[in-house]
Structure formats: C-alpha cells, structure tokens
User: What shape does this take?
Amino acid sequence: MPLLSGSNPADVQTGAQRLAAGELVAFATETVYGLGANALDDAAVAAIYAAKGRPAGHPLIVHVASLEAALHFSPALGASARKLLSACWPGPLTVIGPRAVGVGVTAAGGQDSIGLRMPAHPVALALLRQAAALGVKGVAAPSANRFGRVSPTTAAHVQQEFGSSLTVLDGGACTVGIESTILDCTCDPPVLLRPGQLGSAALEQLLGHSLGQRGLHTPRAPGSLKSHYAPRTPVRLMQAADLAAALAGLAGLEQSGQVVERVAVYSRHAFTAQEAVLAWRQMPESAADAARELFSVLRDLDDLAVDTIWVEQPPASADWDGVRDRLQRAATA
Assistant: This one.
C-alpha cells in the first residue's frame, strides 16, 4: 500500500473510511506516529495489540477531535481535567478520566479509566474529524512501532516497523518527537504519570496548585514500564565524566592492540574520536530540540550494527524530564 498524503484531502478521507471499516491506519501526530483503530470497535483495537505484540492489559490512548467526543468516553471528567483541556487541547497532553461503563473497554486495557488526547497536528485533526463524520467517536492509537521499541517520528519509520501493507497517512516529521504528557485526573489533585513536552511546573501553573503523588490505585498508563523505547542495540546512559573515562579506556585498549567493543555516542559534549567510536552525534543544547530528534537518532545509531550506544545523561533540570525519562527506560532493556 503506497503512503497516503496528509496534505491530500482525498487521502485523508480514505484513511477515515478505513478506520470506519475496522482497519488499522497509522498517522502523524505532533508527538509520534500513532497506530490507530476505531476505539469503539473491539476487534479493530485487538488488531492493534496483535500488530504491536502489546500485552492486552496495557491501555491505549484514545485520540478525539473535540471535547464532546472526549466526554463520550469519560462523561465524569472533573473540573481540573476540563481546565487543563481548555488550556492545552489540541496539544501533547493526555488526561486519564473515569471511563463510561461499557465504552472503550478493550482500548482501556480493561481498566475503569481511559486516556484521552486531542492532537495538535493538522493531519491528525483532519483524520479524526473525517472519521467522526463517519461515526468514529475516537481513535485508539499507541505509537506505531513494535511494543517496547523506539517510537516512530516519520512515516518511513512506521514502514520499517510494519512493512508496506499498513495504511500510513504521512504528515512529515513529528515536531515534538516524544510521546504526550500523561496526567491522571481520576484523582484530585491530578498525578503526573509520564513526562512529556508539558512539564509539571507548567501544569501546576495552569491548575493553580501542586500535582498529587502516585498512590496504590494509580491507573496503568502507556510508556510506564521500566524498560521501554529501546533500540535493538543496548543503550548505556552515563554522566559526562564517566563517558569521557570510558572513551579513554577504549583508546587505551586500542593502543595495546586489544579488540574493543564498537560504540556509537550521543552526547552534549564532544570527545576525542577513537577508532572504536563508529559514529558520534551531538545532542542539542535545547531540551525541545533534543526531544524532537531523540527517537530518530536512536534509530539511526541502532542501524549501524555497533555493540553499544553510549549516551550522555541529559541535564537534571525539569525541561529535560521527558527526554531523560525516555533514555532511562531505553537503557533499562
């Protein structure tokens, strides 16, 4: 199946028709590409789990085109959630609210709560609106990659994961680059479950009060497993000084004629090149720029057939929380 163009209204309509017919459609959002299905079609949603190899109890995020559609899935969304949606939607924020009885059970992984997001990408919004006109109230869509692996930020990444048989609505490279912030709004105050472009400070400013702490009954959320976002090649996350020392150690081994591991390096600081370093990519100084390119860089380095990918630990400041979270989970695999 050739790529569908998000700039072509006829192609967007084709994508919407396929969703309404119970098929899977991958599509661009501002965060990452999603693998979508009609959230109210349990068989179609089950096909997402099967395609990704995703555990059935691991919930999906339902993408909607309006607040009205969100309320179909979670009519009891509280005041805090509605305040945030008014300020942040469309955008890279997922809120978890109480799920309506009998609605979106498979998409919610069987939980009595459900994650909802209105993406800001024009292609995603156009697809959701066209699908809504055909009776699709929401589109369940995790990232369009095999479960636990590096998320896709281009249509080509999706095709590398699933081949040419999957319908992909191409909207160009994702502008945010990491998945949405997830906020549990089933409790008051809400609890941050996954960092993203929107950080805790911004959310607290919008709410006018502090976020809560995770409790015993915190809902399961996408991207919350200890190991996630991982390339095939092992990732080693190190502080700058430790990375410099490890590279110096490689240099010493090379000089003694010993066989050393071949590494690729992604770091904010430049280090003296060694023969064992097959590639070096500089991490941007800006957290937003680093997030935008993170998954693409990991995929590129993964394709080099090195033994290990060495990554410099990002700064500890709050604006780097999303990038740091993804790298820590990638390095846990």
Residues 102 and 161 are 32 Å apart (CA to CA).
